C-alpha cells in the first residue's frame, strides 16, 4: 500500500459596498420539507434488526418498486439531538438477471455492519439494478425509466436528510462502493461535487472512455452484458459508444476529473493476479480478467488526477482479484479515513470549477442553462464572488449564488474571447431579493456538430470564453 498526496502535483464590492458572505454551507441544516423528494414514497419499512431498516419505495424515476437498506449507528436512539454523517454505499453489478436484492451485498458479504458497529455514522445502501450503471438510461435518446441518478441523488439523498438526523452538507456525506459501485462513486462525486465531500472506490471502473479505441469497446461489452440483466439492450444505459460518445464522456469520471478538486478521494485496486487473500473460490477467469481491466481504468483515472494536480489516496496493492476478501480489507482501511474527513469544517471553496455536457446544471449555488444546437462540453471556472469564466457556445443564462446584498446594483465587466471576436463591455446588474445576480451571456455562434460524434474532429467545436468581473 502507498499514499499519494497530490499525484505528480503538476476584487469584489457592491456599488453600495454591502457585499455579504454566502450562507455557511457546513452548518447543521434544518429538516427538509417533503417537497424536496417529489414523488418518492416509502410504501413499506421492515426493521431487520436493531440497527438495520429495509425501505421499499416507489418513484416516478423508476417503473418498479425499489429498495434501500439504512444502517443506523448503535447509539442512534440514545441522544435524540445528535446528528450523524452519512455514507452512501453503492453496490456492484453482475451479468444478471436483476434480483432486486443487490443492495444487500455489503451487509451480507461486505462485513460493513461489524465494521461500523462502533462508529457514529449512518450507512445507506440503495438498489441500482444488476447493471443500472448509476445513470438515467439513454434508452436510444428517449430517456425514461430507469432513472437511477434521479432516484439516488435528487430523491433519496433529500429523503434521508429529511427523515434521519443527518449532517446535511457535503462535509457530512461520503460515497463508497466496489466495481460498478466504484464507478458510481466517482461519477456521482464528479457530477455532484457540491453534495459529496468524500468518494472511495474499490476496484472501480473509474475511466470508461479513455483511450476510446481501447476503453470504449471494453466498457461497451461489459456495460452491455450487465444492462441485459436489467432487461435493457447493450446500448440502453449510455447509447452506442461509437455514436453517442459524448454521453459516455459526460458520465466518465476521468473526463469530469476537474470537478473533483475539492473532494477527498480514495482509490483501491489490485491487478488481477491472484494474491494473498485469494482462495480457490475467488480465483476465476472472470475475477482475474475484470480486475485487470479496472486496474487499467484506475491508472487512466490517476493520470487525469495528476494532469490537474488533484490529490488522492491511491492503493494499487498489486496482486489481488475482483473479489470480496479485498473489498472487506479496503473497507476496514478506508473507514477511519472517511470518519476523519467527516470532522472537517472546511467551507465551500472560494473558487469553483465545473465541467459538463448537460444542457443545464446547478452546482455550488450556480445555475446555468445553455441554448445551443448540439451537445458539447462547457466549463464554469474560477467562479467566486469576484466573477467567473464560462466557456462553450450558444447563449447561456447564469445565476450566481446569493453572494450579494439583495436588490443592489453591481458593476459587471464582461469580456468575450472567441475565435473571431474580442470585446468588452461594462453593465450594471441588479441582484434579486436573495442576493443573486443573473446574466444572459452570448458566448458565440452555436456549433453544429455534436462533440465526439462520428467523424467529429477538434476543429468542429469552436470554443468561446467569457470572463465576467463583478464589482
Features:
six-stranded antiparallel beta sheet, globular, Rossmann fold, 25% strand, disordered N terminus, 471 residues, 19 strands
Describe this structure in words.
There is one protein chain. By secondary structure, the chain is an alpha+beta fold. It folds into 2 domains: 23-341, Rossmann fold (3-Layer(aba) Sandwich), CATH 3.40.50; 352-470. The protein is 21% helix and 25% strand. The strands form 3 sheets. The protein has a 9-stranded mixed sheet with strand order 1-2-3-5-4-6-7-8-9, with helices on both faces. Strands 10-13-14-19-16-17 form a 6-stranded antiparallel sheet, with no helix packed on it. It has a 4-stranded antiparallel sheet with strand order 11-12-15-18, with no helix packed on it. α7 links the parallel β8 (264-270) and β9 (313-318).
Termini separation comes to 49 Å
Most strands sheet: 9 strands, mixed
Number of DSSP strands?
19
Strand adjacency order, main sheet: 1-2-3-5-4-6-7-8-9
Annotated CATH homologous superfamily of the largest domain: Alpha/Beta hydrolase fold, catalytic domain
Structural class: alpha+beta
SS element count, helices: 8
Amino acid at each position: 500500500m502507498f499514499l499519494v498526496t497530490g499525484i505528480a502535483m503538476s476584487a469584489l464590492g457592491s456599488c453600495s459596498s454591502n457585499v455579504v458572505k454566502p450562507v455557511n454551507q457546513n452548518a447543521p441544516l434544518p429538516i427538509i420539507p417533503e417537497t424536496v423528494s417529489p414523488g418518492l414514497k416509502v410504501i413499506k419499512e421492515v426493521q431487520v434488526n436493531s440497527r438495520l431498516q429495509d425501505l421499499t419505495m416507489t418513484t416516478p424515476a423508476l417503473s418498479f418498486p425499489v429498495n434501500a437498506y439504512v444502517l443506523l449507528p448503535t447509539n442512534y436512539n440514545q441522544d435524540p439531538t445528535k446528528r450523524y454523517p452519512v455514507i452512501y454505499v453503492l453496490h456492484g453489478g453482475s451479468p444478471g438477471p436483476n434480483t432486486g436484492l443487490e443492495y444487500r451485498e455489503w451487509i451480507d458479504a461486505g462485513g460493513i455492519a461489524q465494521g461500523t458497529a462502533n462508529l457514529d455514522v449512518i450507512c445507506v445502501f440503495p438498489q441500482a439494478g444488476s447493471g443500472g450503471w448509476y445513470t438515467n438510461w439513454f434508452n436510444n435518446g428517449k430517456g425514461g425509466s430507469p432513472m437511477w441518478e434521479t432516484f439516488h441523488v435528487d430523491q433519496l439523498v433529500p429523503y434521508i436528510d429529511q427523515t434521519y438526523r443527518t449532517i446535511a452538507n457535503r462535509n457530512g456525506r461520503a460515497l463508497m462502493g466496489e466495481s460498478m459501485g466504484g464507478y458510481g462513486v466517482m461519477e456521482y462525486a464528479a457530477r455532484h461535487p457540491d453534495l459529496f465531500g468524500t468518494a472511495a472506490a474499490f476496484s472501480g471502473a473509474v475511466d470508461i472512455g479513455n483511450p476510446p479505441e481501447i476503453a470504449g469497446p471494453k466498457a461497451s461489452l461489459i456495460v452491455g452484458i450487465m444492462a441485459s440483466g436489467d432487461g435493457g439492450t447493450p446500448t440502453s444505459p449510455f447509447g452506442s459508444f461509437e455514436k453517442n460518445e459524448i454521453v459516455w464522456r459526460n458520465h466518465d469520471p476521468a473526463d469530469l476529473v476537474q470537478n473533483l478538486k475539492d473532494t477527498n478521494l480514495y482509490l483501491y485496486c489490485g491487478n488481477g493476479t491472484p494474491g494473498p487473500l485469494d482462495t480457490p473460490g475467488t480465483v476465476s477467469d472472470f475475477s482475474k480478467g475484470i480486475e485487470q481491466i479496472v486496474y487499467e481504468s484506475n491508472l487512466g483515472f490517476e493520470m487525469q488526477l495528476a494532469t490537474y494536480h488533484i490529490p488522492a489516496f491511491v492503493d494499487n496493492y498489486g496482486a489481488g482479484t475482483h473479489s470480496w476478501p479485498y473489498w472487506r480489507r479496503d473497507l476496514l482501511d478506508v473507514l477511519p479515513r472517511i470518519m476523519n474527513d467527516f470532522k472537517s469544517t472546511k467551507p465551500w471553496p472560494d473558487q469553483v470549477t465545473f465541467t459538463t455536457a448537460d444542457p443545464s446544471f446547478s452546482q455550488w449555488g450556480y445555475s446555468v442553462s445553455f441554448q445551443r444546437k448540439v451537445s458539447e462540453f462547457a466549463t464554469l471556472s474560477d467562479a467566486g464572488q469576484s466573477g467567473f469564466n464560462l466557456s462553450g457556445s450558444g447563449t447561456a443564462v447564469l445565476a450566481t449564488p446569493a453572494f450579494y446584498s439583495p436588490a443592489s446594483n453591481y458593476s459587471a465587466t464582461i469580456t468575450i474571447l472567441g475565435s473571431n471576436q474580442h470585446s468588452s463591455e461594462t453593465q450594471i446588474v441588479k441582484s434579486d431579493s436573495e442576493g443573486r445576480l443573473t446574466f444572459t451571456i452570448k458566448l458565440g455562434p452555436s456549433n453544429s456538430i455534436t462533440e465526439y460524434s462520428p467523424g467529429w474532429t477538434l476543429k468542429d467545436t469552436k470554443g468561446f470564453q467569457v470572463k465576467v468581473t463583478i464589482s
